[in-house]
Design a protein that fits this description.
Elements lengths: L1 E8 L8 H16 L3 E8 L12 E9 L2 H8 L3 H6 L10 E6 L3
Antiparallel strand pairs: 1-3, 1-4, 2-3
Length: 103
């Protein structure tokens, strides 16, 4: 299992529309990649590691796939449409990480 994580840094002047992200953007990805995406998770940053410290990331989205190949073959053909939707919910530059899920 792999996890594709997209992190949105918590920067001054940054905006993030959680309702759009949850109700439109992530469902669009799920629809486009189909059953290859096993589940989706959305994180909303609340705080940093110390009391009173702001979160490092305003938000993070996580997509789970059986393999890197499954992600690449299903996401790749739709990457342009997915990326063109980003300005509809944020002005933050996303950071992507693909990880192996270990249990």
């Amino acid at each position: 299992m792999i996890k594709v994580s997209v992190f949105y840094p918590n920067t001054d002047g940054g905006t993030f529309d959680f309702a759009y992200y949850q109700d439109s953007h992530m469902p669009m990805i799920q629809r486009l990649v189909g059953d290859a995406c096993k589940r989706i998770e959305i994180d909303e940053g609340l705080a940093g590691g110390l009391p009173g410290q702001p979160p490092t990331y305003r938000a993070a989205g996580h997509l789970f796939f059986e393999s890197l190949e499954a992600f690449q073959t299903t996401f790749g053909p739709h990457a342009k449409a997915i990326l063109s939707d980003v300005p509809n919910y944020t002005n933050l530059a996303p950071i992507v990480q693909i990880s192996a899920v270990r249990t």
